[in-house]
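Supplementary Note 2. Why include the ligand at all?

Several targets in our set were suspected to adopt different conformations when bound, so apo predictions alone were not considered sufficient. For every target with a known small-molecule partner we therefore ran a joint prediction. The input for GCB is given below.
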Amino acid sequence: MKKKFRKVLLLLAVSMAGVTLAETTPQIINVESRQTISLDGLWKTIVDPFENGYYDYRRLPLKKGGYGDDVEYTDKTKLQEYDFATDRTLFVPGDWNTQRPELYYYEGTVWYRNRFQYQVKNDKRVFLHFAAVNYEAIVFVNGKEIGQHIGGFTPFNFEVTGLLKNGENSLVVKVDNKRKFEAVPTVNSDWWNYGGITRQVTLIETQKTFVRDYYIQLKKTDKNIINGWVQLDGNQLNKTVKVEIPELKITQQLTPDAKGYAAFEVKAKPTFWTPENPKLYKVNITVSDEVMTDEIGFRTIETKGNQIILNGKQVFLRGVCIHEEAAFRNGRAYSKEEDLVLLNWAKEMGCNFVRLAHYPHNEQMVRQAERLGIMVWSEIPVYWTIQWTNPDTYKNAEAQLTDNITRDKNRTNIIIWSIANETPHGAARLDFLTRLATKARELDPVRLVGAAMEKEEVKPGLMTLNDELSKVMDVLSFNQYVGWYDGLPEKCDRVNWTFTEQKPIIITEFGGGALYGLRGGLTEHFTEDYQEDLYIRSVNMFKRIPGLAGTTPWILKDFRSPRRQVRDVQDDFNRKGLISDKGQKKKAFFVMKKWYNELKEQYK
Ligand code: GCB
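The joint prediction is reproduced in token form.
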């Protein structure tokens, strides 16, 4: 078929189906070190549960008159039934649920509008970058629909060169967080479905030809070599690229191939990044007048039998699970300050590892953990039972995995890419997750691949991991709730664990709920006494697990979940936090702290 004809057909199909197929442009990494204009602040918003701003009364996409047009309602002789100017505001970044009481449980569409000033620069290209929008975003610039994005926790960008004008510009985003069966995550989860433009929005200005992406890490097969690549974007792809690591006296002049890709290898003896000494090196990447900087560390990560080996040395992962929910405020976290509160609590508990559950957290969370010497388990929201046989669901999951790895592949502290949490056995699921694992390894052959699986009681008192997926994973990682969903805490004393595969065992969840300050008997649910006793017995049980390589209790802080309904105890909070929603440390926190301090000595 002739190319042009195919294009016409495609456009026809697209308009008939009533959806837009406009693509995002390939992800631009390390936004912070680029020339940017922030679009954060108070945006005008319209709450639109019936999606009136997008569809007409026949439920067909509006050709004209949609809210994306952003027409001011000044001429009252004309009928118009929306008006951003007089409507209310929401702060960007931020979830809407915790900004307005009437949006607390809201799931649906909210329109966001920002009018901003811009000065067109003829020697620049401009990109509109969203660090994350939950869950679907349709974006309009100066009344033109420029594209859409699906997935609530990964960044995306559109090129808007030529679409912006001098003076005032209009940016409208239709944000829809309705849960859907085919989505990732699906309708069912145990965390708050925070809607909104939940992370930063930025205009990035670049040269005509610029560094879009790069990878710089130790070579997997030789720890005396730093290798990497740089990817240019633009119409002069043969421009020389300079990569420098001044402290290591490394300077590489690279000539990209016809696709703008240039790889390199160089001998080096960097000081390795470790949790005790999280050494990072300044890296400069220069093309023409544009210099990008990053801070990059070097380390090796591998497994040997049931050990996790960091820089050639066995390490125990003293971890904790974290949701991206701000301390004290209890909404979606997005700022460095909020991330730091959570990470410092983990540090205080003695952690060298965090499981960022159950989706990619914001980039700063990972970067700050890296500076603090905290290793990271990075996860995508393939959670519980999603549609294993739906090709679109797979595409969506793979896109989220790809975007997560693309964004964070230079973060030394990430040691495990997690592709799923508590998914049910079955051939379709195995196929789905095997493909995802293959993709993860193709994108990043260095790090480990894991998934939070589930334990099984093969006979009374005998626990194991009996999951066909474990063959595909680098670690035997699973959640277990002996003493909470499975018996009372005393059960921990009676069970034994056995494993047939020789891989590192990581307990990716355990624990139980407690309301801070609620006291009572050791078998009384939701008391701090129960939770403390459960933790003491869990730790004793763990000491009997041969090959245990790490634990991440569920969870650092109480977090909002509409599944948790007991009034005056849960009040919409999952109470399994070691710290309350108000920042108070529960008794169980100190059980973990004590054990982790012992382990620190043991693994010195
Ligand atoms: C789990 C899930 C986690 C839940 C937790 C719980 O196994 O992975 O998302 O929040 O249990 O509290 O039940």
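Residues 1-21 have pLDDT under 50 and may be disordered. The longest helix spans residues 391-408. Comparable summaries for the other entries are listed in the accompanying table.
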